[in-house]
Amino acid sequence: TQAARSAERAKALAPDSAATQHMLGNVERERFAYAAAEQHYLRAIAIDPSYPDVREDYAELLYQVGRMRDAAIGTRQLIQLDPYYIVGWMRQFDVETALDDRRESERALNRIRELDPDNIWSIYGALDYALAFGREHEARNAAAAIEARYPPQGALVRVLVPWVYGDTKGDAQAASAALN
After folding, report:
1. Distance in angstroms (rounded) separating the CA atoms of residues 60 and 91
2. For the purposes of burial, counting CB atoms within 10 Å of the CB of 175, is it exposed (0-12), middle (13-18) or buried (19 or more)?
3. Counting beta carbons within 10 angstroms of the beta carbon of residue 148, is it exposed (0 to 12), middle (13 to 18) or buried (19 or more)?
4. What contacts 24+ positions apart, CB below 8 Å, involve 82-87?
5. Contact 167, 143 (CB under 8 A)
6. Which residue, 65, 58, 63, is CA-closest to 24?
7. Cβ–Cβ < 8 Å for 30, 1
8. Is residue 108's pLDDT more than 90?
9. How many CB atoms lie within 10 A of CB 143?
10. What residues contact residue 125 under an 8 Å CB cut-off, 6+ apart?
């Protein structure tokens, strides 16, 4: 791939740079060579501990392979480096949701809302959390909050939540329009 060729050129020019190690990690991850990717990411972090992009990719790798506790540590380090980096907060929300850590999920979601109130996580985060664990009452409350605060997205959640919980009695045409 182009990314692999670029990483090899970077390795020839500056093998010990954080950017090169980061690129090599991304190439290995693309090849599903997760252990090799992790080693490159860790080398990049050791070379430049203040490099947020590699921390974000490393946390994403840990999330992908199911190492949620490690991913949570990685995302916390990332947002400590840059508390305004919204992608870091999104990763934090995803990881904490996977861990079913309500307090940390809400903390991340509140920060996302502070940084960008119209972000998709800001709008659907609480609903996503409830749906992830089959919490119907909570999901319906989150959907009602979306309808009240974000009327354009209300049409989708008005159909989506009942559909998720098997209520197919509604308007089939409206459901089709909202879900497509």
Report:
1. 7
2. middle
3. exposed
4. 82/52, 83/111, 84/115, 85/52, 85/56, 86/112, 86/115, 86/116, 86/119, 87/56
5. no
6. 58
7. yes
8. yes
9. 25
10. 93, 105, 109, 112
Task: Return the structure tokens found at 70.
Answer: 């490690």
Q: For 106-113, what is the mean pLDDT?
A: 96
* Longest pairwise C-alpha distance within the chain: 63
Render pLDDT for 9-68 as a digit per residue (tens, 0 to 9). 777 777 788 999 999 999 999 999 999 999 999 999 999 999 999 999 999 999 999 999
| pLDDT attached to residue 177 | 66
Q: Identify which of 117, 78, 111 has the alpha carbon closest to the alpha carbon of residue 93.
A: 111
Per DSSP, 29 falls in state H
